[in-house]
Design a protein that fits this description.
4 copies of one chain form a homotetramer. Chain A has 462 residues and is an alpha/beta fold. Helices cover 45% and strands 16% of the residues of chain A. The first copy, chain A, has 17 helices and 15 strands. In chain A, strands 7, 8, 9, 10, 11, 13 and 14 form a 7-stranded antiparallel β-sheet that branches. A 6-stranded parallel β-sheet of chain A has the order 3-2-1-4-5-6, sandwiched between helices. In chain A, strands 12-15 form a two-stranded parallel ribbon. The longest helix of chain A is centred in the N-terminal third of the chain and has 25 residues. The termini of chain A are far apart. Chains in contact: A-B, A-D, B-C, C-D.
């Protein structure tokens, strides 16, 4: 694949977004090595066109080094044909469905901190999202089978799996920044415990093993030194009070995203491996140790993110979009911390990169089923991604993880066959669904009914 | 192995028992094909000698066809040397330790219906029992390496595993009657639903797959007809009210052993396979769906067996023993329903038998680790036992089962290495231990302390 | 399945045969427990009608206990609809193709003793036979999906595999008598070495593990005693001169079927397990240790069976058929030694049976791919067959066996996709094809061309 | 591990060698980033001391950038204590044993082109070498457990496996340059077929999968373009005449090392993957397709290397050594093409590297046994090596490879248990040992007898 680094084509599905799309714009703007065209496709065409304008305004700024042309596209076909890369970052459905996913289970005593990955909310979101990914995968197969496809959409595992299920030859992978935060905690730890300041998170080398949002590190080093003994001391030191990294983003957001990493520390004490995702995600994968009720969650120091916050956040961003369009505000030029551009550059041939991604298991995690989408490191090089052998999960963690892997396989089969009873098997088997089978069925039916608009062909009572 | 069917030797370890030993006596007494000597060994020598006398009194009765000689033996060496069969049925420790196993967790909100297999109680009982089985296995290796060894002691899986771990060439297997009850339910079902009365449980042919006390049937037939569709109707019919088989034994016992099979029916509705153990056992293997608290258990129609009942029961049996010895009471001649004698006869060469046993996995359950002790059918023939291929567990059940398989492997490693932290990993990973890690540790330490007499070499605070 | 043992239906595909069909008639004739109808279907309708008459003449004889009605059927549909059992025993193609399979490779220095299982001949025969089995499997699926299907046709593994590939729910198994001969050798051995005469081959209990015609015994007992130590002595005693069992059948046949069992003994000396098929079959699975050329085969004491013999044999049997029809000759009433009727009786519910069969691997042989057709013991009971766990092949044998398992998987994929290049991969990978790749291709093309009549849809140069 | 790049310690076991040791000296001499001390240990102390002098003379030269100090050490303990790296490159035994390994089998019609990896010669060499590696591994465990250990000695797989068997925590890997030659052929191919000259072999990116000397590439790219279609054309073009890369080294050597790559091309035509080792090695892993006799080997265009050549070559090098010591000749400053120094630099933290190495399988090759030493790419970074997931071997190649993997496991068990019969099982199972079992045993005994000096504790007839 001879990529022309000055004339790359990136198709962005969900290109009307005000979060990830803007991050991409910024990251492209500050990069000096590549340029080309970004095709913005969104079912909200207006939003895509707004972003087209915002992106082009940015490219015209003299302080911007990476000059890219932004084009809103009217169809997947147009967006995909001839593209080198595809980025998928969509919101499946509206906040209305998300509110049902996250909050309806609360009536049954089931609390979720995010509700987009596992648990009742993650499952129903998956059922809604999978048909969208079927459509996208078919379009990629038809119009850009050689393109590299980067997915950011949750539930990460099932979205990525759907792409491969529909088009086994796809060159797709899923990206998630949760591991980065854990690297940052390690960098903070070196400051706190050893007085070594200013360490970049990239300098913390980790071996990643697990499934998205329930990822683990069985090795972490700094300059070749094993960090796990120090992490043991660190977790003991902060097990009770917790340890919070205050980042700018957190300030902008608010307490709903707070995390004192106490879940992470507890899991380390239990199992001896570093859990490498935010506490809000980790808690959802376990039996209700940390999510028994809002009080317990509070004791563990993490917030439950209500959908009302997301509604408010979107309103803020739409206002910001207007200010960008009117020129009232300018986009701040600063790297987002995401790795998408780095990965694209490695694939284009501009230097190898080892980082964590979600890919079908081909042996990189020994003991998990082949074909299940797992998260490990991979080597990115010219037109190639190869997972790094991560080893095996310790048995105790394996028994927590396999439950979700099995559930995810069931969910995808249910989604493809539109089989409600099969989907319910997975629902009732989720560790958070710690209620009677009758209540579980009742909740399940209500949740499906609330999202039925996105489940054509299913037999759902309304 | 040319067994002399008229001169067989059976060593009974735990031969002072008033339950299983008496059942053996009765079953031998009513059998007309084999005879020989039963060597009774027990750390309670007095009890063994009482049973020697009771057994020999029985053999002298004119209405008894199977004439056996009973001999109390003073050492394992004497009991084992030259024996053809070894039966192991011991009580590990006293009721005091059992009370701690079963009831101490209640202070922490953890309820157990039996407490001898999994859960906190099962784990601590295992730690206490494994060293005893190490001693027995070493003695068998030394004195009767060619003998067939039948284990009845719980925790079945870990006791059997210990025998193989110490002496890989051992010819041992574990027997459990829980599957029989499920066959009886099917026989009752045929009466209830089809009006076919008088079916023997042996006529219900089943394919057994699972681990002891968490065993499943993926096939059940009567005269070649598939019973699962009927069982589906049956479970729907009785899901709410439950269905109780009133057996004589249950009357003798009492409500602590009641079962309305509602857990069994619920598991069928969840997973589509027949759970083949009593509800009291099944409930302990699941997340606290059925054992959240005593009220929930009651709603599900099964009792929690208190150790106080066992104390009372023993007292009754000791009085019965006195009456036997004085001739005041005579043992009732009736087959116990256990299969030990049938198995012995098949091994001696008196006809093949297919029945369920616990053996190390050599592939009979695809997908579970090789070497883990699993329960399936096996073909018993002359000096040979071969497991029957049971297939694979459905994924959803697999994810429940593997958690215990993994825990059991951890427990045995912990027991052999006397590693308290490792044992605690398994403890905290048990589905019933749905409490904070700190409380879990506290409970664990107290339980170990209560059983420390049986844990030589462990570092335990008293 | 409530079978009416006095009114069973057996469909015989290949029912015009003069070998296996007559054996079936005899076995049915001497059995007193079952009766019913045998439907004879054959593409050679005349032959089927002749057998109809021969069968019915037999049933009319007063000395015959098992009275069956024989009916020639004109279509698969008629033959199958409503049948309880299906027997498949066909000759795929004519002796012309068989001559090409067996003898053309000799021009290239490749010698085959049978040429119907593996080697160049076995492969080409498989390609020719698989489409026939596709048709049969589809008919069974359509007309008798609940019937038990017994296959006797070679190549056994691939015929049985085809049935399952086309109709996964089929209740089919493959039967082969090769293991019986090895049991007979063991019985002879007990006479020769221990002076114990008159042992039935059924009394030699064996554990069967392998693939058809390359099957092994890792356990053999007589009355519970391990026979392997004696077999070691026996093989040492006869390694040089060989040991021949002269059976009546062999006399009738001739030197082409001779076997001194020296290959069997050599394989035992190499690997320590008993190879359980005739030397003529075993030799074809190995590198050309025993089949380098006809002289080497002669040294090893086994004959290469020429197709000319089969032509002659058929002529003899057709004359015999005429004599049967004219009443000039009467069928001799004697059990054939095959187990088909025993198996049918067990499936009907007339008593369990443990014997060896070919079935898709569900774990009965640990380490071979799931789904590959393997040969082990199985428990036959009322409407049920369950394979017995056979264990694992020792690594050295595994490496010989896996080569054929892999080849067979390739052959079946090639046959289903009509992919000549894929078929050639398997051809060139056969251990007997020890020639240059160019010669191999040339031979392959010529062999395909000779059998092209049976390969519709393939691109073959004629 | 905070390595001091200006003060590294490298222990060289076999440090008296005139081939690999001199290559190391040259590669260190031309490198500008690292320096330190090389400790030379050899059972031939005189040779080590000569190399000490030669190395230090080199370091004194003004045209040398990498200044290293060379020290001959008298014991493993001295050489290892405190070292950062260990290089193992020894000649196990003398040319006398090697002559027996390579040439004695010729009396039995078995021809070997190298005789140091598999085949009768490779097996006997392994038996001789393993005890030496046991000693080395124990010394590393005792004196330098944290050091990185690079093995160059053949048989690579079994030497590396021995290190891990004795000391599971060892940080060892095996290096081999055979893949590099295949990359060079691809570079030549681009010149020949596309006119693109001057490509470095490092620019050909390959995915490596297999076992040492029988390694395969399932992907090869240049600037992101798939090279396999071109390689297909290339192999067709040169299948008959072959294609020879004339390198300087080949000229210095002679026809014994010639290779026309016809074996490589033939294997590609058979299996569709690129075999990535020299033809002399590849031929030894196959059935005697290419090594039937010297004429066949000649037709395939590769030479059989006689030990007489090695004797002559050593004589030449010893004379060269004298000239170095006397100053009559100067070492030529030129990179050897080996990657050892690059790997050391990556481990020290001077930049990541992806290259092929031999490591125990932890899943990098799906389908081969865990723990078997396999060859794949790995990521070298600061104090870390992680294998890259290579995928699965196609089934047809798998069946060739597994035979050797199985044999190698048998050999190592035989060597550790000094079990002659077990070793013979592997011997007789080697694809080249295509002779009668009796001749095989005779050859085996003679070969063992010839190497018995290095097999203490074995029962060998002399």
């Amino acid at each position: 694949m001879l990529y022309d680094k000055n004339n790359l084509n990136i198709a962005y599905i969900g290109g009307g977004s005000r979060g990830w799309a803007w991050n991409l714009m910024k990251d492209l703007a500050v990069d000096e090595e590549i340029s080309g065209t970004v095709r913005l496709y969104d079912i909200n065409q207006e939003a895509a066109r707004a972003n087209e304008k915002i992106g082009n305004m940015l490219s015209e700024r003299p302080d911007v080094s990476g000059k890219w042309q932004y084009k809103a596209m009217d169809s997947l076909k147009e967006a995909l044909t001839g593209t080198d890369f595809v980025i998928i970052s969509i919101l499946p459905g509206s906040f209305e469905e998300m509110a049902s996913d996250v909050h309806l289970p609360e009536e049954y005593g089931i609390y979720q901190s995010v509700g987009d990955t596992v648990g009742p909310g993650g499952l129903v979101r998956a059922l809604r999202t999978i048909p969208m990914f079927v459509e996208i995968a078919e379009a990629i197969k038809a119009y850009s089978p050689e393109a590299w496809v980067i997915n950011y959409t949750n539930p990460m595992t099932l979205c990525t799996k759907t792409l491969y299920q529909v088009f086994p030859g796809i060159k797709a992978f899923g990206c998630c920044h949760e591991v980065f935060s854990t690297q940052k905690i390690m960098a903070e730890m070196l400051k706190d415990m050893k007085g070594i300041a200013g360490i970049d998170r990239e300098d913390i080398k980790v071996n990643v093993i697990g499934i998205n949002h329930f990822t683990w590190l069985n090795s972490a080093t700094y300059k070749g030194e094993d960090l796990l003994p120090l992490y043991r001391e660190f977790t003991e030191k902060y097990a009770e009070e917790g340890y919070q990294i205050e980042t700018e983003a957190d300030q902008v957001r608010n307490s709903y995203f707070n995390s004192y990493n106490k879940v992470k520390f507890d899991l380390f004490r239990r199992y001896g491996l570093v859990a490498a995702a935010g506490d809000r995600h980790l808690a959802e994968f376990c039996p209700p140790w940390y999510l028994k009720n809002p009080e317990v969650a509070k004791e563990w120091g993490f917030g439950l993110t209500p959908v009302s916050w997301r509604v408010k956040d979107l309103k803020d961003k739409m206002e910001k979009s207007s200010r960008f369009l009117s020129g009232e505000e300018q986009m701040e030029l600063k790297h987002s911390g995401e790795e998408g551009i780095k990965q694209i550059k490695a694939l284009v041939g501009l230097g190898d990169l080892v980082t964590n991604v979600n890919l079908p298991n081909m042996g990189q995690i020994q003991g998990l089923p082949l074909g299940a989408v797992v998260e490990t490191n991979a080597v990115f090089s010219h037109n190639s991604i190869r997972p790094v052998s991560a080893g095996q999960l310790p048995e105790e963690i394996y028994s927590l993880v396999i439950r979700h892997v099995v559930n995810q396989e069931t969910i995808i089969r249910a989604a493809f066959s539109k089989d409600k009873d099969l989907a319910f098997k997975a629902f009732a088997n989720d560790p958070l669904v710690n209620i009677s089978i009758k209540d579980a069925r009742n909740l399940f039916e209500r949740m499906l009914s609330n999202t039925s608009e996105y489940l054509p062909g299913w037999e759902i009572e309304k």
